[in-house]
Design a protein that fits this description.
Blueprint: E1 8-9, E2 17-26, E3 30-32, E4 35-37, E5 49-53, E6 59-61, E7 72-74, E8 78-79, H1 82-91, E9 97-100
Parallel strand pairs: 1-7, 6-8
Antiparallel strand pairs: 2-5, 2-9, 3-4, 5-6
């Protein structure tokens, strides 16, 4: 087992429960409020990996702000250090069960 320091949603907005991995993306584009923010843009907060969950719109992803890990600062997703989400990305496949607890 591994433990990672993550950031979660402001005001407990990260959904809790059992979900499944639906998709995995390398260097993801961020679709934010109708805007398309490509990977590499300073405005793209997704980091280097996206692991989508069955809770539509939510996922586990990297970050461009590693100094904010351990805080409730996201819109609801789970953020991780890029090197750690890259490691996790290699372990999971679509259909993998993910349990998020409070």
């Amino acid at each position: 087992m591994k433990t990672y320091v993550v950031s979660t949603g402001t005001n407990n907005s990260t959904p809790v429960g059992v979900f499944k991995v639906t998709d995995k993306l390398i260097n993801p584009t961020w679709y934010k409020s109708g805007a398309v923010v490509p990977h590499g843009s300073p405005a793209n907060v997704l980091g280097t990996r996206w692991i989508g969950l069955t809770q539509k719109g939510y996922g586990i992803h990297g970050t461009t702000e590693p100094d904010k890990l351990g805080q409730q600062v996201t819109a609801g997703c789970v953020r991780m250090r890029n090197e750690e989400v890259e490691e996790l990305f290699g372990f999971v496949v679509p259909g993998t069960e993910v349990t998020i607890v409070d």
